[in-house]
Design goal:
Radius of gyration: 29 Å
Order of helices and strands: EHHEEEHHEEHHHEHEHEHEHE
CATH architecture of the largest domain: 3-Layer(aba) Sandwich
Helix content: 40-55%
Number of strands: 11
CATH class of the largest domain: Alpha Beta
CATH superfamily of the largest domain: HAD superfamily/HAD-like
Strand order of the largest sheet: 9-8-5-10-11
């Protein structure tokens, strides 16, 4: 059976074949080029269009296809063909939705590739609702949150603070380069300046803490961990457990309006030779098996485990 292409005007009337003139403006051509250049987007958009049209019985039949042309798209079913303009509202909804499908499909392929090749890749999509489900937070759970690198990414602000302090004390022309893979610490300072006097070392460390608030705008909140903190801070005991000094921690929390989201604070302990988790348990007198700890540093995860914490959320892997 010979098929014939027809097109309807806005009133649903058939436009005579000889009067059909296709001339898409530039902004529509841009959309069409995305479709034409990505077969996956084409496929998911077509599936969405068919799902939209057939429940409404706009085109009857069981076998259907969608073809995207430069000036229109054509839906075919049982030898009946109907053309639509790209300005149809349902098309735009189907087109936009296709990107979600494309992302989910791509992520599944990527995750399978990572699994099969046994690669150590830090990429993971964070789904706060899923994490909260996996956590199995009970009514008496206590949540420990590390700050630097866990709740807030402070690495760049930390580096800028050190750099300004070093420029002030040692060498204003020191060409320090930021390394996003390694946090600049006091050990880093000693390695770069092995001949640094004790007094200059102390000056730099103190100035670094003084300058830090100037660079708070260079920090970034970890939204996924933040969402979990907000979710449970009203109903559960939450504790900040950090090696950060009190002044810098409070400045960071205040910058993001988080100071009142914690019931207890464990800051850098200068007097006792304890890691932060040992210090937390000695001060808080709580049971480790009730604790869920959010941590990014490997050594601190080991320390938390040694203290009996069973649920440790590896923030780098989230």
């Amino acid at each position: 059976m010979k098929t014939e292409l027809i097109q309807l005007n806005k009133n649903g009337q058939i436009i005579p074949k000889q009067t059909i003139i296709y001339s898409n403006p530039k902004h529509i051509k841009k959309i069409v080029s995305i479709l034409k250049n990505n077969t996956s987007i084409q496929r998911f958009t077509a599936v969405n269009i068919i799902s939209y049209l057939f429940p409404d019985e706009e085109i009857p039949g069981e076998k259907h296809s969608v073809k995207f042309l430069l000036d229109r798209f054509v839906v075919k079913c049982n030898n009946v063909t109907k053309a639509y303009a790209y300005t149809e509202t349902f098309f735009l909804n189907c087109f936009i939705s296709s990107f979600n499908s494309f992302f989910a499909d791509s992520k599944s392929s990527i995750d399978n590739f990572i699994l099969k090749e046994k690669l150590d890749v830090l990429y993971r999509e964070v789904n706060t609702k899923k994490i909260c489900t996996v956590l199995k937070v009970s009514a008496d759970s206590i949540l420990f949150f590390d700050m630097d690198g866990t709740l807030v990414d402070t690495d760049y602000a930390n580096f800028l603070s050190y750099k300004k302090a070093i420029d002030s004390v040692v060498n204003p022309n020191c060409n320090l380069q930021y390394n996003p893979k390694n946090r600049f610490t006091r050990n880093t300072l000693e390695k770069i300046f092995p001949n640094l006097s004790k007094s200059d070392y102390t000056k730099i460390v103190n100035l670094k803490e003084k300058y830090y608030p100037q660079f708070l705008s260079e920090t970034n909140l970890n939204k996924e961990v933040f969402d979990i903190l907000i979710k449970y801070s009203a109903t559960h005991k939450t504790v900040l457990v950090t090696n950060c000094c009190k002044e810098r921690a409070i400045a960071t929390l205040s910058y993001y309006g988080l100071e009142d989201k914690f019931d207890e604070f464990i800051f850098k302990n200068k007097e006792q030779n304890l890691n932060k988790y040992q210090y937390a348990f000695s001060k808080l007198k709580i049971t480790p098996n009730l604790v869920i700890a959010f941590e990014d540093e490997e050594q601190e995860k080991i320390n938390a485990s040694k203290e009996g914490i069973k649920k440790i959320i590896n923030v780098k892997k989230i």
